[in-house]
C-alpha cells in the first residue's frame, strides 16, 4: 500500500490532479479479507497483476475468470532484463493456468524457465533484492509503458474509433529477453509474441478439466462459495 500511496500522491497526481486513486492493504489469503478482495476484483474494468507470486496469481486467476475481468499478468526479473506479459480476455481467452499448463508441456517460450537459481519454486524467478543498477530505469520505463499500451488496447478493444489508430490485439502473450546469449549476438530484446490457446485440462476455466479432479481442496471450495455469494450481490 505504501508503494501505491507514493505512486498515487507523489507522481500520478502531479500529472493529472483530477485523478482519484484508492489504495488498499489486503491479504487475499486471510479469510478476514476474502470478501473485500473479491468485491474489489468484481467491480474492476481491468486487473493488472504484478505480484510475481504464483499463489496469488492463481488465486486472482480464479476470481477474474469467474467474474470475466480482462487481466494483464506482468512480471520481470529483479534486474528487469527479461520478463513477460500474459493477457486474459474473458469468455474465449486462455486463463493464466492454461498458460502455465502449456508452459510445462514445453509449448511456450518462457524466459523464466532457466536452470539457474534452483532455490525458487518457479525456475528463474529471482528475489527482488537487487541493488541500484545504472540504467535499469530504461528497462523499467519500457516495461511500464508497454503494459500501459496493452492495457489501453484491452480496455478499448471494442471501440471502432480507437482501433482506427491502434492495431488489433491479436496475441495474448508477450515476452522479452535481454540477457547475454551464448551465440554471437548480445541482445534479442523483442518484445516477442505468441498466441496462447485454452487448455481442456485447465482446472480453472475448463469444465472438462474441473471434472477430472476430485475432491476439490477445502480452500478452493471456500473460495468458490465466496465467489458465488459475491456474484449474487
UniProtKB/TrEMBL annotation:
GO molecular function: ubiquitin-like modifier activating enzyme activity
Record InterPro entries: Ubiquitin-activating_enz
Full protein name: Uncharacterized protein
Native organism taxonomy: unclassified sequences, metagenomes, ecological metagenomes
